[in-house]
Each structure stands twice: as C-alpha cells, then as structure tokens.
Amino acid sequence: MAYWLFKSEPSAWSWQDQLAKGEAGEEWDGVRNYQARNNMRKMRLGDQGFFYHSQKDKEIVGIVEVMAEAHPDSTTDDERWECVDIKAVSSVPTPVTLEQVKANAKLAEMALVKNTRLSVQPVTEAEWDIVCSMAGL
DNA sequence: GCCAACGTTGGC
DNA sequence: GCCAACGTTGGC
Description:
By secondary structure, the chain is an alpha+beta fold. The protein is 26% helix and 35% strand. The chain is built from five helices and six strands; from the N terminus they run βαβαβββααβα. The longest helix has 10 residues, at 125-134. The relative contact order is 0.24. It binds a DNA duplex through loops.
C-alpha cells in the first residue's frame, strides 16, 4: 500500500467538508498540474493519505482513503485531467503543523517541505509512520 | 499583502 | 526546442 498527502485550502474544500461527505466520499477534482495528476494515477484502491490544510492552518488534520482510482475529472472537458475519489477515515487526535514537520530532521525530505506547491504528494512509509505518531495515532 | 518558487504558455 | 513573460500557489 502506498501513502499520499492531499493539500487543500480550507476556504475551498476543508476537512469538515470532507468529513461531511462520509462514506460517500468525494472527487479530488480541480487538479491542473501534471505532477499531481501523475501521482493520482498511481493511486490504488485502499491507499491512504493525509489531508493537509494549506494557507491559514498549515497542518495535517485527517486521514483519507482512496475509494476510486483515477478517472476523468468531471469539472472539465479537457481529457488531460483526471482525479481519484477519497473518503475521510478519521480526524487525527493532534494535528501536525508544518512547523513541526520542518522541525523534524527525519521529515526534511518530505515533499510538503521540499516541494511546497505540489498539491498531491507521495509520502514514504517511514514518513507516514513518523507523522502518524506525531499526530497521536 | 508580499514575494519566492515554480509551472505553463506562446513567440520566435 | 528555447526562453521570456505571465499566472498561481502558498509560506511568511
């Protein structure tokens, strides 16, 4: 199983919005970046990811699961763009801030730190484990 | 609100 | 195919 990180501006699509969708989940649409799209194409059913609030909060607030693999993005006719569907699994007991991630030398290679503008990122298993424990999981 | 980083577009 | 111009993202 692979791990990912989904970044969203709370004002556009927040963790609360995602939670409200429950088991129905939601398309992770609107991605217009090749790297992010390529990451989504690699996702498989059951893969898990962090849900990160950018801008104001800058923290990992929840865990999501891939419930549908890459398919055309319904928000555009441009067939270049695809998206996956994700559903909320749980909120994290203790949100992990960007500041905390930056302060941890073992997480220095995370795309969250190195490639700040990428909205859909891969997370290694080692990084996943560390962040989970920081989050109180 | 500013600005650095980076991706995309389009002229040549 | 290069590169300048431009637009967007996101941290500060």
